[in-house]
Amino acid sequence: MKKHGIFGFALALFLIHSVNSCGAGIGGGGVITNPSLQMTFHPPTPWTYPDTDALTTLAYFPGQSLTQTEAQLRANGDINSAVLAGLQTLQLPTTGITITPSYTPPLVKDCAKIQGGATTTGGTFGYEEGGAITQMITVASTLQLTPQFCISRDYTGGVATNIPTRIPFIQQASVKIDGLTMSEYQLTLLAAKVSQYLMLNSKVDFTEEITVN
User: Which residues belong to the signal peptide in this entry (predicted)?
Assistant: First the structure.
């Protein structure tokens, strides 16, 4: 199991336990109107998009949206579906409400993989694991990456001492639900259901628990 996925697995177990628990200790007893959820995660590949020449150079990931508009529609649709599924599971109203996601799809490119094409000189590329972009990898500006190196995800250019820089790729999103009044306890359960749905159906790789207000 990849290292970052340990959190996701533990979170899934916690969420399943939370939703199935009937104890009153989860959440508070207050009432919240027009609640919102805040999410922090490694984004699913379809929630990102590549450079405009990606189709020509094969510098994109399988399943990745090809435009920012497409990525936005995919993310909004997934978040909407997750909220509706959570409300239905908890037998909360789904009519007369307005679900408003807030998310800005990031540009994430892969290095060029078209056989016979030009080599890629330096740059920053996404690293995909389990259907999500988990890292950004930066290679030296003078390093030449052939399409074969890109296909095999060898970002050293075949030289072990050419160690690229890797940083976690973490994004945020929120969703507001207008026209709904619920208890803090119900909102905590809804957040758990939304997390489960997005992890299982959209491959959102959460790095933190969803926060609610």
Answer: 1-21
**Of 141, 134, 139, 143, residue with least CA distance to 167:** 134
Strands (DSSP E) along the chain, which ranges?
Answer: 31-33, 36-42, 98-102, 120-129, 132-145, 165-168, 171-178, 181-183, 205-206, 211-212
What's the gap between Cα 150 and its chain centre? 23
Cβ neighbour number for residue 30 with a 10 Å cutoff: 9
Of 128, 107, 123, 153, the closest CA to residue 42 belongs to 128
Predicted TM-score (pTM) of this structure: 0.85
Averaged pLDDT for residues 42-70: 96
Cβ–Cβ < 8 Å for 137, 163? no
Residue 26 forms part of a structural domain: no
- Report the greatest alpha carbon distance in the chain: 63
Give pLDDT tens digits for 180-189.
999 999 999 9
Q: How many domains does the chain have?
A: 1
Residues 134, 110 contacting (CB under 8 angstroms): no
Within-domain flag for 163: yes
Tokens describing residue 87? 């409300």
Residue 128: which domain range? 3-11+32-212
